[in-house]
Each structure stands twice: as C-alpha cells, then as structure tokens.
Design brief:
alpha/beta; UDP-galactose 4-epimerase, domain 1; globular; binds NADP nicotinamide-adenine-dinucleotide phosphate; binds guanosine-5'-diphosphate-alpha-D-mannose
Length: about 325
C-alpha cells in the first residue's frame, strides 16, 4: 500500500514542490484547499490528475477532523498560512487566526482523529526577527518583528507542546527564505525577477522597492521541501533549521538579476517608502548543521543560480515559451 500524505497549502509555492516530491516517493497525495470563487491551481495544474484535492480551511476545525477521518493520511504537512509579512501588519488578527491558531486547530484535529499521524509544521526564520545571535540555529532565542513572526512563533510552540503533551510525532522545520519561479509576485525576489524580465522586454521601465539593505539567507524551494519530508521519516520528531548558511542583501539580488540580462539595477530601481515595514528584520543567516548531520540534507542550488533561474523563467513566461508555473 502506498503511503498517504495530506498537504495543507498545496496551491502555494512549497505545496506544489512538496506534492511533486511525495509523488516521486510513491505517495498518494491529498491536498487541502479552501473554497474560493475562482480556483488557484496554477502551480499544481501539471500534477492535478495525480493528486486529490479536498475542501478544508485552517479557520474551520470540523472540516479538518472530517478530512482526516475520511482520508486517513499517515503524514500531514501543514504549509497553509497567511504567509506575507507586509500583509500581516495590515491584517494582524487574521494572520494570528490562520497562521497561529490554525496550527492548534489542525494539531487538535490530528489528536482527535488519529494521534499516530506524523505532523510537519512550517515554521519560519522570521521568528528570529531582531536576531540575538549570528548565525541562527535551533537553540537561538526568538525575537519576532511582525504579526506574522509572532503568529509563527505561536505555531512553533504549540507544535512542541502537542509533541510533549500528547506524544505526537510533530516536527517543526524552521525554514529560512526559499524561492523559485513559483514564488508569489509580492515577495521581493519574484517581484525583482518578474520586473527585470518586463523591463528587458520593454513592458516596464522601473522597479519600486523598499529596503535594499535587508539581508536574507535565500535557498531554492525545491531543495527545502525534501528536508520537510526527511523530518517525518525520522524515528523521533524534532526541530530543524533549514538554510544555506549564506546571506545576501536585496541590493545584491537586484545587481545579479539585472546584470543577468545586461542591465544596471541603478538605472531602474526606485526607492518607495510604501514598501518599508513598521519593523524590519535586518539580517537572517541560518546554520543547517543539524539538518545536514541528522537528516543528511544539503541545499543543491546556489544563490546566483537561483537568481538566474528565476529571471530566465520569468522571461520564458512573458515570452510565452512557458505555459505555466512549472
Ligand atoms: P504561499 O505560497 O503563500 O502559500 C500559502 C498557502 O496557504 C496557499 O496554498 C494558500 O491557499 C493557503 N492558505 C492560506 N490561508 C488558508 C486557510 N485559511 N486555509 C487553508 N489554506 C490556506 O506560501 P509558501 O511560500 O508556499 O510557504 C509555505 C509555508 O511555509 C507557509 O506556512 C509559510 O508561512 C512557511 N514559510 C515559508 C517560507 C518561504 O520562504 N517560502 C519560509 C519559512 C516558512 P490559496 O492558494 O487559497 O491562497
Ligand atoms: N516584499 C517586498 N517588496 N519586500 C521588500 C521590498 C518590496 O518591494 N523592498 C525591500 N524588501 C525587503 C523586505 O523589507 C524584507 O526585508 C526583504 O525584502 C524580504 O521580503 P519578502 O520577500 O517579502 O520576504 P520576508 O523575508 O519578509 O518573508 C519571507 O520569508 C520568511 C522566512 O524568513 C516569507 O516567505 C515568509 O512567509 C517566510 O516565513
């Protein structure tokens, strides 16, 4: 019998890569999607005939209990969230409800439906916020700087709490920023690569950004979903940092992205106060030592390759050489 996994957030960037990875491992994949007036299946269109999508919402616990009882997955990957930091300042309560309390609703659904289910929580380096240690590891104290970071911290600790209280096989992956051609257009990396492609093709003439000095440890999403899966294959649940161990500024990202198509970012980037945040996370850099040692995980795509992969994909999309986000 193939193993069965449930992914919440399957329509998101990570959900699509994780679904591909699990299919490759021979899993039956169930994706929980929330009801909306138009479907948002662009990232999973190419595998839609190989997965089952079922309705459920992190805001509605009954839907998740029902779903777990009906589908009986052995593994649950909780990737759903209001995941955009900037939006969390404007919608702090919704973000807390979905990204924070939503984790409790799902963990409790697991406890009620089948406490033998292995559970993955998508925690975030945003929890380190105003960092108290460089680089950040599993033992670095947290200091979140946004309603999103605070909500993720709640999600992280409730995962630890359910592990310790109810003996659940619940693991928390503290993932640093990871990107891909499937990244949402509002995140800085994709905003840059998509606008670079538009400028190159004569469809835009400027790129409006906020803080160019912020530094992030950027990896490739396709690499990071493998670490999620590896966590649930361990005998015991645990917490793991997943990162590359390198950090680069938004400015550097711009330099490489524009340079890749023969342009100088200084000719096109306009600083716009609208994209500054009430509180910023200035520097993130993680150490993947534990993931490397215990999971045997290593990032495969380097920073420059990631940037150029994303620019090339956006050029191909805009020129009609790619039919979708895969
Ligand atoms: P994403 O592209 O924004 O995807 C978020 C997913 O959550 C979408 O499928 C969305 O569905 C779903 N969702 C939102 N609200 C929901 C609700 N109330 N009920 C059910 N589903 C809901 O995010 P991502 O980049 O793939 O990230 C995956 C997870 O990892 C998120 O939890 C994120 O916070 C976390 N994380 C991401 C990174 C990163 O760098 N990407 C780093 C650390 C942690 P719709 O399609 O309907 O909107
Ligand atoms: N989005 C955006 N847009 N960010 C900008 C812009 C802009 O125009 N200009 C500068 N930035 C800066 C932000 O201020 C931030 O310091 C950095 O670029 C990265 O912003 P995002 O790409 O929006 O990502 P994030 O680091 O805030 O959050 C992402 O990574 C977290 C992990 O650390 C998201 O994927 C979160 O869901 C994830 O948890």
């Amino acid at each position: 019998m193939p193993k069965r996994a449930l992914i919440t957030g399957i329509t998101g960037q990570d959900g699509s890569y994780l679904a591909e990875h699990l299919l490759g491992e021979g899993y039956e994949v169930i994706g929980m999607v929330r009801r909306s007036s138009t479907v948002t299946f662009e990232r999973i269109a190419h595998i839609q005939d190989r997965i089952s999508t079922v309705q459920g919402d992190l805001l509605d616990q009954a839907s998740m209990i029902d779903l777990l009882r009906t589908w009986k997955p052995q593994e649950v990957y909780n990737l759903a969230a209001q995941s955009f930091v900037q939006t969390s300042f404007g919608q702090p309560v919704l973000t807390g409800d979905v990204t924070g309390l939503g984790v409790t609703r799902l963990l409790d659904a697991v406890r009620i439906a089948d406490p033998g289910i292995r559970f993955y929580q998508a925690s975030s380096s945003e929890m380190f916020g105003k960092v108290v240690e460089v680089p950040q590891s599993e033992t670095t104290p947290f200091y979140p700087r946004s309603p999103y970071g605070v909500a993720k911290l709640y999600g992280h600790w409730i995962t630890v709490n359910y592990r310790e209280s109810y003996d659940l096989h619940a693991s928390s992956g503290i993932l640093f920023n990871h990107e891909s051609p499937r990244r949402g257009l509002e995140f800085v990396t994709r905003k840059i690569t998509n606008t670079v492609a538009k400028i190159k093709l004569g469809k835009a003439n400027e790129l409006r950004l906020g803080n160019l000095e912020a530094e992030r440890d950027w990896g490739f999403a396709g690499d990071y979903v493998k670490a999620m899966w590896l966590m649930l294959q361990q005998d015991s649940p645990d917490d793991y940092v997943v990162a590359t161990g390198e950090t680069h500024s938004v400015r550097k990202f711009c330099q490489i992205a524009f340079g890749h198509v023969g342009l100088n970012y200084e000719d096109y980037v306009v600083i716009d106060e609208a994209f500054y945040r009430p509180a910023e996370v200035d520097l993130l850099i993680g150490t993947p030592a534990k993931s490397e040692a215990k999971l045997g995980w290593k990032p495969e795509v380097g920073f420059e390759d990631l940037v150029t992969m994303m620019v090339d994909a956006d050029l191909a999309l805009l020129e009609g050489r790619l039919s979708g986000l895969h």
